[in-house]
Specification:
mainly alpha, flat
Length: 71
């Protein structure tokens, strides 16, 4: 579990889940520090690279299966 003193950790749902005793995994690429439009009001679909996102999701499918002992 990452400590809450690390900048940005508390912004994500996994941190609060972990504080309540639920297992959690954080996948973070530090986008919030690199992308000026990060946030619900400015983060619009036309800013998303859907092909890249699909590659990330496919890779995460394997990671989650591996963590769950399914590989």
């Amino acid at each position: 579990m990452l400590p809450g003193s690390i900048v940005g950790v508390g912004w994500l749902d996994h941190w609060s889940s972990g504080q309540q005793g639920y297992p959690a995994v954080m996948v973070l690429d530090t986008l919030s520090f690199r992308y000026a439009h990060y946030g619900p009001l400015e983060d619009m679909p036309d800013e998303i690279d859907f092909e890249e996102m699909a590659r990330v999701v496919a890779g995460m499918e394997y990671v989650v299966a591996d963590l769950g002992g399914l590989c």
